[in-house]
Amino acid sequence: MVESRLGKLAPDTLERLIFPHLGAARPEVRVGPRVGADCAIVRLGAGRVMAVTTDPFSLVPAWGLEMSARCSCHLLASDLWTSGIPPAYASLGFLLSPGFDDAELGIYWKAMSAEWEALGVAVVAGHTGRHAGCESTVIGLGTLIGVGDEGRALTAAMAGPGDVVIVTKGCAIEATAVAAWAFPGRLALDAAGLARARALVDQVSVVSDCRAALRVGVGEHGVTSLHDATEGGVLGGLLELAHASGLDLRVEQQRIPLSAEARAACEAFGGIDPYWTLSQGTLIVTARPARAATVLESLAQEGITGARVGEMVPGSGKLWLTSSDGAVRVIAEPTPDPYWAAYERSVREAWA
Q: Where is the PurM-like C-terminal domain (predicted)?
């Protein structure tokens, strides 16, 4: 048997196995499954649309039940908010191991419910059960739905040549937060640096980033697309945006924020590349050139750092990455995220 890579399927695998077989074709589906799309957009009529996203939720042992539950909510809500439509309804399925007891479920579920309430989301359906063979940190799957005006909905197709590319917060946000809680002694950081790295767990979300950017306006008035850089990191997210928009992105790598904490965490993980690794919490924004400064100001008002890293240009879905020495590399396919193998090793070897 051929060993499959961990994490998301590669784009060519999705194109070969999944995307040709999507059930019935329905004309109201404006945006369906595709590389780089965080959400589906379905027309409801009368100028209204439904945004839909699905993702797993998990229990990260180092974070504990409550923190893991909150982050799982924000993983889903972050994707939904990139559509420009606020989330409203959730359908959740728990596939629990036999050893996940009622007390643990009660703590996780109450924390999740409290976070859904804070996000304005009602849980409307789901499934909960214990099943043999479900011994994993991934304990379920959720679908989040929002309904809003079609004129406010964003898709990658709205981005155009000349649009400015903005990245919030920096690289390896979630990977850093996991490392700082799971094996803090391995990070080459002083006490203040470790505290900053641990605090990143509260930034494993782009909900606030999206809200701040969307205040400026959409389309010609400001933001043309939003994309959540999760698995595959910032460079993977930029490449996904290129694929989804059908344009090329020209980006200067040295402009992408990279904190000392992220460097230390990725080194502790065995020297994984911080630009290509798990960065839930980083938002990629494209904006009309005349409105880019206003987007950055709106982010700053919420205490969110943002950096102008490049622009969109005519092309066919590639990332043109300029390094600090001026060399330009053309990237057409993503690098597999090194996080999953590194995390699996950390668990297997019981790093502390």
A: 160-316
Give pLDDT tens digits for 65-117: 999 999 999 999 999 999 999 999 999 999 999 999 999 999 999 999 999 99
Count CB neighbours of 236 within 10 A.
25
Q: Is 275 left (phi over 0), alpha (psi -120 to 50) or beta?
A: alpha
DSSP code of residue 133: T
Fold of the 156-348 domain: Phosphoribosyl-aminoimidazole Synthetase; Chain A, domain 2 (3.90.650)
Please report, for residues 8, 64, 281, the alpha-carbon distance to residue 229 in angstroms, rounded to integers and kept in the order given: 13, 24, 7
Q: Name the token pair of 206.
A: 């782009």
pTM for the whole structure: 0.95
Q: What angle do CA 75, 76, 81 make, to 5 degrees?
A: 105
Q: What are the tens digits of pLDDT across the range 38-54? A: 899 999 999 999 999 99
Residue whose C-alpha is closest to residue 291's, from 227, 224, 237, 229: 224
Q: Determine the CATH number of domain 11-152.
A: 3.30.1330.10
